[in-house]
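Customer escalation, tier 2.

The customer says the design service returned an amino acid string that "doesn't look like it belongs to this structure." They asked us to rerun it and document both sides in this ticket. The original structure tokens are below, unchanged.
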């Protein structure tokens, strides 16, 4: 089966009103990869993210964390998809429910790009700041991409809260790992996205700084009304701040196929 084929597995049920409290409602998502006769299959039976939540995705290397994040970021097409609803805040063209599974099936790349541009934020492991822009210019970049004016008051107020106000005119190369990650978090939130996806956002800092960064990240996102899906291998780091946690059950189905299933953990 090709990577670009998308086969609906079940009819979509429910209504927009029923799922309006969700930012993401995903059912029966499958991504198959094959290379050199060996296959890896990621299966996501259900993945629902409520508005304002911090959801952690935890697993070791090779379990499919990055693949899942790329699917949620709408940059990777699934092999099969039963339901993928993305609920955007607001009214009119930019608000309401988007049937992402249908957009994939119809090849509506422009609509997918619009969703990414207007409603998603990203925090990468390395920060992902553009080296030729100052911190201030990096922070204003999502606003420019979205067609919004610069927000100097907001940028400076948030920089003060995160303790990086003296770095606004510096280039990323002159920042520490922790400083780059704090600025990357601010950049991901500055345009008030519905959903922020974070891929190991504290991998480059020590445990003390990591805890502080995650706490500040969670606080700012909740104030801004954004929802966070964070990938990490470090469960203790997010245990106290995550609303829900998803892990992976990895099985060697055959000599040529590994299957990884993403499941929500039951927390006492």
């Amino acid at each position: 089966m090709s990577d670009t084929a998308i086969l609906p597995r079940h009819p979509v049920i429910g209504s927009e009103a029923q799922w309006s409290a969700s930012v993401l409602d995903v059912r029966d998502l499958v991504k198959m990869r094959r290379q050199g006769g060996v296959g890896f299959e990621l299966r996501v039976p259900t993945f629902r993210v409520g508005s304002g939540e911090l959801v952690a995705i935890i697993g070791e290397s090779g379990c499919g964390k990055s693949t899942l994040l790329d699917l949620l970021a709408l940059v990777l097409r699934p092999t099969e998809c039963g339901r993928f609803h993305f609920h955007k805040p607001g009214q009119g063209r930019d608000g309401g429910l988007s049937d992402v599974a249908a957009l994939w099936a119809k090849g509506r790349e422009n609509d997918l790009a619009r969703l990414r541009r207007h409603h998603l934020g990203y925090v990468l492991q390395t920060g992902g700041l553009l080296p030729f822009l100052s911190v201030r210019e990096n922070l204003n970049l999502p606003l420019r991409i979205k067609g919004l004016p610069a927000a100097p008051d907001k940028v400076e107020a948030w920089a003060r809260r995160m303790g990086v106000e003296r770095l606004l005119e510096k280039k990323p190369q002159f920042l520490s790992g922790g400083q780059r990650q704090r600025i990357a978090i601010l950049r991901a939130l500055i345009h008030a996205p519905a959903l922020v996806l974070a891929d190991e956002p504290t991998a480059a800092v020590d445990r003390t700084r990591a805890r502080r960064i995650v706490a500040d990240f969670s606080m700012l996102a909740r104030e801004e009304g954004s929802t966070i899906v964070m990938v990490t291998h470090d469960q203790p780091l997010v245990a106290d701040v995550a609303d829900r946690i998803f892990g992976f059950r990895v099985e060697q189905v055959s000599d040529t196929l590994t299957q990884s299933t993403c499941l929500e953990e039951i927390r006492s």
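Tier 2 assessment: The sequence is consistent with the input. The chain has a mean pLDDT of 85. The two ends are 40 Å apart (CA to CA). Sent an explanation to the customer and offered a walkthrough call.
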